[in-house]
Amino acid sequence: MEPTPETTDLSAYLAADDVIDHHDPLVAETAALLAEDTGSLHEYAQAAYEYVRDAVPHSFDSGDPRVTWRASDVLEQRNGICYAKSHALTALLRARGIPAGLCYQRLTADDGSDPALHGLVALRLPGTDRWSRLDARGNKPGVDAGFSLDVEQLAFPVRPQLGECDYPTVYAAPLPQVVESLRAAPSSARIVLLTELP
């Protein structure tokens, strides 16, 4: 599937806001630390991806009841679900001038029940004309997502026969409904996941 940006204006994919708050000192400091051991933007992008994937546990895996939605909070509290982790990775990429946005998948249980929207990140390295999707959800038995800009290595390949699908749009900002579902949740166990794109 070819990710499709919602706008051709790349500055939209570098902007900061209340959710993708890469102007926050903690985000900037984390980005600077990750950049110290990298020699190129490609290496930095991989380091940022692996940091969010591995050093920030997924709340459903860890059982952490705290709910994060702002990138800086995800990095500070070291927890979040897929949406929140995508916000953090997007912020870290933008902090170093790498255009990045948000993508979504519709996933289900193995019998096609319990549909839920899953959050991903798409980036476009400067000097290229291709967007690549990454899944920073976090690995566990049965889930092996990795950094690859050529062949996708997502946590969950879609199963169309179960009603699953990839949404191609790369959004410059998180969907308002996604942010609201996180902000309204009293705990991670009570987050109301969207079932499809509005």
UniProtKB/TrEMBL annotation:
Coiled-coil residue spans: none
Record-linked InterPro entries: Papain-like_cys_pep_sf, Transglutaminase-like
Domain of life where this protein originates: Bacteria
Chain ranges of the Transglutaminase-like domain: 38-136
PANTHER family per the UniProt record, alphabetical: BLR5614 PROTEIN-RELATED, CONSERVED INTEGRAL MEMBRANE PROTEIN
UniProt-recorded name of the protein: Transglutaminase family protein
Organism the protein comes from: Actinacidiphila epipremni
